[in-house]
Amino acid sequence: MRFLLPLSVAVLVASLPRFVSAQASDETDAAVVKKLAEQMTNATQKGDYKKIVSLTYGSVVEQLGGPTKAFETIKEQMETMKLRGMRMNQFKAGKLKGFASTAQNKFVIVPTQLTLSLPGATIQADSFLLGISSDLGKTWKFVDGAGIATQEQQKKLLPPLPDDFQLPKPKQPKILRD
Q1: pLDDT in tens, 66-104
Q2: Picking from 23-27, 41-45, 147-151, which range would have the lowest pLDDT averaged per residue?
Q3: Is residue 101 within 8 Å of 85, Cβ to Cβ?
Q4: Residue 110 · residue 129 · CB < 8 Å
Q5: Torsion of CA 96, 97, 101, 104, to 10 degrees
């Protein structure tokens, strides 16, 4: 007597190598993305504007007028913050939240937490970086979640996202009085 597997089991067994391969790929990508996201947050804290620009997704850099203008804009914004008495205490990347793909791109959410001090208060802002790989995981660039809060910004700056991939909703910063 011959044993036949139910169709659903046969499909599952046939797709298992692809699933295991995708899972291993996501784990490798997670290590790379986490390291790059930490480079981005560290560069922001240290004022390494060149590094920030190099890790920023291309359409955002172009929106800012290209690499040189983006560098100048970021530097100016950071210096303005300092002149207003703001100091960055901490900017850290959290645990990655799920990968998603289209035929052309891979995406991942990297939660972030920023803590700023200003005269009389401390601000804590929870946001995210959107990691985008246009070469299916070989290289990764980032977009700050604050810059893509609206549908209009997303359409203008991002490649099409997978239908089932949701960006986190913007959160109001917490203001703690000193």
Answers
A1: 999 999 999 999 999 999 999 999 999 999 998 999 999
A2: 23-27
A3: no
A4: yes
A5: -40
Read off the pLDDT of residues 125-164 as tens digits, 9 standing for 90 and up: 999 999 999 998 999 999 999 999 999 999 999 999 999 9
Domain boundaries, the chain: 7-177
CATH number of 7-177: 3.10.450.100
pTM more than 0.90: no
| Residue 125 buriedness (CB in 10 A; 0-12 / 13-18 / 19+) | middle
Strand, coil or helix: what is 117? strand
User: Cα–Cα distance between 13 and 167 in angstroms, integer?
Assistant: 32
Q: What is the DSSP letter of 56?
A: B
Which amino acid belongs to residue 76?
E
Contacts from 35-40 at CB under 8 Å and sequence distance 24+? 36/131, 36/140, 36/142, 37/93, 37/96, 37/110, 37/112, 37/129, 37/131, 37/142, 38/92, 38/93, 40/93, 40/129, 40/142
- The pLDDT > 90 percentage for the chain reads 75
Contact indicator for 60, 143 with CB cutoff of 8 Å: yes
